[in-house]
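Spend some time on this chain, C-alpha cells included, and walk me through the fold:

. . .
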Amino acid sequence: MPRFFESDEAAGRPSLGVLPFVKLPLASAPIGSERVELASMDLPWALALDANAGVAAVGQRRPDGFVVQGLTSASLARRVLERLTVFGELSFASRDQHDGRDRLGADVGVGILVTRALALDGAVETTLRGDGPDYAVRAGLSVRFGSR
C-alpha cells in the first residue's frame, strides 16, 4: 500500500496510505467490496484506532445502471494479553440499491494470535440503523504468507 507518511508516535500522527483497487461485480451477496485502509494510529493504554473507507459501483438490473456506494468504518482495539485483542467497530454503508437505505452497524469481538502466521477472530454484529440483521455472529481465519 502506498503510504503518504509513516506514523510518528511522539507527534501522535497516524500512518496514512491509499490502496486503490477495482472489484468486478461477479460474486453474489454476502460477498461485498473490499475496504481501503485509510489510517491507523496507536493510542495510549495499548489501544489502536483504524479508519477505513471505500467506494463501490454496485450494478443494478432494474432499473439498469449502477449505484455508487460509500463504505466507511472506524474500529478501536486493545490488546489485553500478548495474543488476545478485543475490538469494537462502527461501520457505515450508503445504499446499495436504487430504493435501498443507508446502513449503520456496530460490532464487538476478539482476535487470537495462534502463531505468528495464524490468527482467529470472532465478533457479534448488530444493525443500528437501516436494513440489516438484528444480530449476526462472525468468525474468521487469517493466514500470513511469506516471511517477515
